[in-house]
Amino acid sequence: MRLLAAIQNNERIAIFGDYDADGITSVSILLRFFHECTPLRPGWKLPNRQTDHYDLDLVAAKKMVAEFQPTLVICIDNGTNAAEGV
C-alpha cells in the first residue's frame, strides 16, 4: 500500500540495494518497473564492497537523504538489521 500511495502521489523515492548479484539485479528490476510503469524516476544507491559497510548504515542513509530528499526509501536485499540507518 505504501508504494502504491507513493506512486499515486508522485513522491520522491530512493532505492538502496546490496552490492552482491541478487542485490544489483533486484535494484535493476525495480528501476525498470518504475521506468516502464510509472512517471517516477527514483534515485538509487549501491554500496561499494571495498569502502562501504554492509547494509544501510547511518552514514549511507544520511548521504542518500541529502542527495535525493526522498519521502520513501526502499531497501532491497538488505536493511533488516539496519535499525539505526532506517
Largest sheet: 3 strands, parallel
Total individual domains: 1
Number of helices: 3
Helix content: 40-55%
Q: Which strand-content bin applies to the residues? A: 5-15%
Tell me, briefly, the overall form: globular
Gap from first CA to last CA: 19 Å
Radius of gyration, CA atoms, in whole angstroms: 12 Å
List the uncertain runs.
none
The H-and-E topology, N to C, reads as HEHEHE
Return the average pLDDT rounded to an integer: 89
State the oligomer: single chain
Across the major sheet, the strand order is: 2-1-3
Count of beta strands: 3
Determine the structural class based on helices, strands and strand pairing.
alpha/beta
What is the secondary structure topology, with strand pairs?
Blueprint: H1 2-8, E1 13-16, H2 21-37, E2 43-45, H3 58-68, E3 72-75
Parallel strand pairs: 1-2, 1-3
